Amino acid sequence: MLINEKLLTPGLFGEPPLRDERFQVKERWAECHNLPDNHPEKNTEFLHRQMNEEINGMEMAARNLSDFPNAPWELRMSIARQCCDEARHVDMFRRLVVKLGKQVGSYPVMNFQYRIVCRISSLAGRLAVQNKTFEAGGIDAVALAITEAAQIGDSDLVDLFEFQAADEITHVRFANEHLRKAIRDNPRVAMEVAKALTTAMAAFAEVMGEAATKVRYDVSTEARLEAGFLPEELKVASDVMAKKKATLAGA
Known about the structure:
The structure is a single chain. By secondary structure, the chain is mainly alpha-helical. It contains 8 helices and 3 strands, in the order ββααβαααααα. Helix 4 (about 125-150) runs antiparallel to helix 5.
């Protein structure tokens, strides 16, 4: 396993997941192959990076099952289904990468999501960061990806992203439902969630650098409503996205 020598802030990140010798693991976005939009391998590199992010998603869900064995049964079943979904996504992305002439390990990858989420000590905090934040952002991004794939007539990509979006909506929904109930039952859970989100935001900023504000997509209102977000939560998400785009435009 190759890990970049430039270490991240220890207090913000947990241990990395294991990877075999095929993987080139980097710690920061700037250290990856961030190819220009007109590069012939741009889409392949993106799909390869997404494949590893889905591996992270599978590993995080599996860790939630093993680390919190006393969680409510229905919640554990939802997390188990998520683990299965993420494994299927990994295979879908891998197959497409191979179809495009590359192999696992052709490009560098990052495991920051796993390192951020698995450091969090509470299941509520993990679900707030992994499902309600990272996967919700994925819902927004995949809506644009579906549109762009359809515009160029790439039916394989359209199918892949539509399957991914449908699954991720369910992952975000069960987290939203559980967190609302958990906070109603014990308001102190809200403090756990706030602490986890604050730390995760700092860690994300360290990993991504300037790329953290470089977003091309909008908040997908329809998909987020289906995923259980409340109207007031959508407004907050839209305001945050607007600020990011304003920052980018003024750069």
